[in-house]
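Q: what does this look like with zinc ion bound?
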Amino acid sequence: MKKSLTLIILIFFFFNSCKKEEIKSNEAKITSFTVANVKGTIDEGKKEIMVILPSFSEVTSLPSTFQVSAGAILLQGTITQQNGITTNNFTNPVTFTVQAEDGTKVNYNVIVTVTKSNEAKLLSFSFKKTLNNTLMVSEDVVGCLKNTTMTMNLLETDLNFPNTVSIIPSFSISKGAKLLIEGIEQTSDKSTYKFSSLPTNVTVKAQDGTEQKYTLNLTSQILNIEEFMKKCPTDDILFSKFIKDFEIRRNGVVVTSYDCNDKFDVVLRILQAIRVIYYVDIYKKSAYLPWTNMRYYDWLKDRVQGFDIVDDLGGAVGVCCRDYNGRKFISLASTKNQSSAVIKYTYQEWVYFAGFISLVGHERRHADPGSYPHNGNCNGVSGDAEYNEKNLGAYGVAYWLSKAFKSGILEVGVKCLSTAKQDEINNLIGVNNWAATYFCLNPPPVNIPASYKECTCQ
Ligand SMILES: [Zn+2]
């Protein structure tokens, strides 16, 4: 009896231990590990899992989805990982422990790497008015990017290099990138950069070090004439200067109020013409007018200090000049006496102004010593004796100015206008109609090919 009981006990232990070895596995492997939908690469030999995430991924609190050996569990420290639920901070490598069914433990290191961005784009660049009090700008200057050239148009600022211009730039660039001007890192809205030469080199450096070079150019130029003329002249930052330099009268009476809503008003047309004349050649670096070393505005102001709008000019559209209190005035016909071809244009339309500014030049030429009278009565009209760019008469000045706008000597962004408007300007600029007859000797070409440069920025 004792013998058989021992046998039974032995048999029991034998079977019991046999059952234990069959059920409890010692396998402790991670067979799959995914973070933020990116599957990791498992190096079973090194017990290392690499996960490479897209740039700018947040890694401080990410759940992982995993598969481990059958019957095993995954731990981080002492915390059992709930598949797809428990979060971990992957800023640094994280050690996970697989605990097999039989308690065997194996560690894996999970290394999450965030890809560094290679994007190095300059997205926007501007000079905010509020941050740049020293700049004479009436509104924020927003850069125009074409290919890799960013153009900043500081129309109201006389750049006058090589004097430095200190500016606080505002910009946006690719995420994680840095912007450097001539190698100096800039902080948007904060750093002051002293522009001392142009163009200036701008580099955008991506997070991974990839560089994109840009050229930054400052200009003072009318880039889109019709856009420029949308502004009522009374809103110009220099308006008080304009009306100080040039007095406006109507039939001899000084004009003191202006109505921007009266878009056909001759007063506004004249003020707009003064404004355009001031800015039209501000970008010109050297003397370019054949008859003077001055810019157009200064040449005009030099001998003319006012405009008088006259109802009855005896059929003329302009007469120079009349004195009021020691100031010389150009008389211009009020709309009453002007042709329907021109009175339909508002003070916002360049179509009319290209010719009007030439007319102002014509009248101004009469104020010069010798007055350049109309004395070329050779074609039945009273024009200039000859067209000589070394000594232009009144019609010669008008022709030359019209030519300047058509040929691109004075570039004001006409190409930004519709083709129909460009054609209208070409017709109305007036050169074709009178160039052949108003010069007795050496008449200039009747047809000047229009050479408008590509619109600088859309
Ligand atoms: Zn004349």
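The chain has a mean pLDDT of 88. Residues 23-114 form a domain with the Immunoglobulin-like fold (CATH 2.60.40.2340).
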